[in-house]
Design goal:
The protein is mainly α and 197 residues long. It has seven helices and no strands. The protein binds fe (ii) ion (2 copies). InterPro entries: Ferritin-like (IPR012347), Ferritin-like_SF (IPR009078).
Length: 197
Amino acid sequence: MINYVDRMADALVDVLKYSDSEVEWPETRGLRPNDGVRPEWLYPAIESSDYSEITSILQYTQQEAVFDEIGELLLGIALVEMKHYAGVRDAIVALGGKLPQPYSSKNVKIGTSLVEALTLAIESEIATIEFYKSIEIKFSQDTDSVIIMKQLLKKLIADESLHLKLLNRYLKDSVNDEQKYNSIVGEWLSKIKLYIE
Ligand SMILES: [Fe+2]
Ligand SMILES: [Fe+2]
């Protein structure tokens, strides 16, 4: 059956500036069980970790409600995270895995100021990029499923890197003082530079 809501969401997210349109989604239906990719590797992305797609959806939509100034930015990113959740979920199902539950929101951190909200969002994006990169090094052979999975990770990492870039730019502009910005991001600075360049 045609899922019109899903098609509309695809079209909407594709035209938003919060997704990297240069990198395409793979066809995850081509993934197969026991073909060099284990579904368990993806579970943290839809569980309660601080880098999970559900955690980021809840974090950004709640931050959107509190910090009006960055509402559009955060909702735009949250919509892309919903597509990420759906993409990872489809991959897990195709690989023969189970969808984990229940969910705990213990890692959803909102922050009490605009700067703190942006800093928390930046930290989440970095943790997510590093999680997806940690899966990339698990492959030992180039099966059909591994090739699809590599493209899925490439897409996810490209989008998270774009989110990091947009959030960092907003933080930098709102602080408007190089020294102050450096002390806010502290130890994260080298990773921000690494992933947005
Ligand atoms: Fe994501
Ligand atoms: Fe993201």
